């Protein structure tokens, strides 16, 4: 039979140039060892010294083996306890028997009555007590550099976990080590048995108290598997915890271990169904997370993550943990009457937690956004969520900002609402951006897009102080006046585009508190527009023209040459520096104040006509009362004085003279709109 390799020229080249020389070198090295190596010669032909050495070695090995078989391991309990106590600066004792079995493919150890005390500041309770514990390791894996534990059995363990408000944790054996946020990593355990375990938690920073039981049983009945059940309180309200997993039998590193967990407290409920991807690496898992509650801000007490106040919510998405990094991805749900979706990443940078969120809404209800700013959400009988300031008659929210929560984490936020539900302000889209670092919150942008026009600005909140200090700078561009002043008889009362700017700063723990203590300026400008002629005449209290046009249903318009309202703000009181409404027939000038603390107005508008008018009441218009429902009227005292003067003239001189107080010669001139607008901007 022909040999294809023998006839292959390439094979002949490899054989002659590589294999034959290599074989020759190997044979030469073997011949040298046989001729020169003393160890080889001694092994082939052992002499008396070699025989004695081999015998001594065998005897020593036999003696060591016999010693280990007969050794009373309890003699090591004291030295182990003293070493561990000195190493971890707490009392550690083994009070019961210590038994070790080394002569097996799965060496094992059993220990009874183990006590690990608390640190100096928590010595009143042991951190860990175990009545009986047993564990084994797989020897072949150990020789390969891996630790695998065929079995771990623990009976009646008692664990006490204490965390103080300043961050000390009783279970940290090395408190000086940096907290990386990584999960507990244990070697693979094929069988885990826990009998009648107890866990006590005292988290003083968030006021969490809990007593839990823990069991891990084998079998196929309803009691088999991993069970963790806890009850307690959080911030004085009930708290429950439940975790379920399958039996720990034949657990493998490459086989995910599934679990189901629920936690409920402070009006919040979190449900997770997932799997630990590499048992027992608790720093790696995937889960479907569902959460719902009355206010997202409440999850801080459960998770330590700061979130804003919201109306009732329900969300669901995919939760992934990669050591210190948690990702809540592709979640969807509702917050109040608005939909919400997006991604949230929680990580650790140094010793600080960081949260980065990218959120979206297809349809936003502005009342839900008002709740984020501190307004209190309320559910109506129809099921809709509305928001109010929390105080009757108040416009500005008065819920205080929790500055302590802003100091414990950093992060960023991006939020976009593609559409907004129909609202009185005609807001169509919303965009928000935020950056929080070391207690300083920068909001940029804060943008509201209207059907026509936009409100855009920035805000900065310094929460490093006990009382936050804030600064805002907002600009209004092109907002239609017809969206502010309602139409009458189907025709717009006033039209035009408004421009404005608000620059304020001051201390305050809430929006209302900030406004009540603010300083700065607020201005509103209408470069040009149109006003119903009847209302333009009434600015000058022109009875004959104004009331006649109004009662007659006249819808003709007068030009607004310009309107400027410029206020300086100090101590929460806005005082008019410039207040001018210049129309074709009337020049109106105003004065007065707006009290942001009481949320009230006290404004006075004096109008002068530009043409002679026969009957004109010399009385200013007044705008007074709360911001939520101001009342427009006339100064009755001025009208009474004018009528009294007319009556006196009619009685003393001539009935025609009685008309003189009501005659306006119309001497008002056009305002210098360019200068007024420039000064207000």
From TrEMBL:
InterPro entries listed in its UniProt record: AsmA, AsmA-related
Cited Pfam families: AsmA (PF05170)
Sequence intervals crossing the membrane: 52-71
GO cellular component entries: plasma membrane
The protein, known as: AsmA domain-containing protein
Keywords: Membrane, Transmembrane, Transmembrane helix
Domain AsmA span(s) in chain numbering: 55-204, 224-577
Coiled coil: none
Gene Ontology BP term (one): regulation of protein targeting to membrane
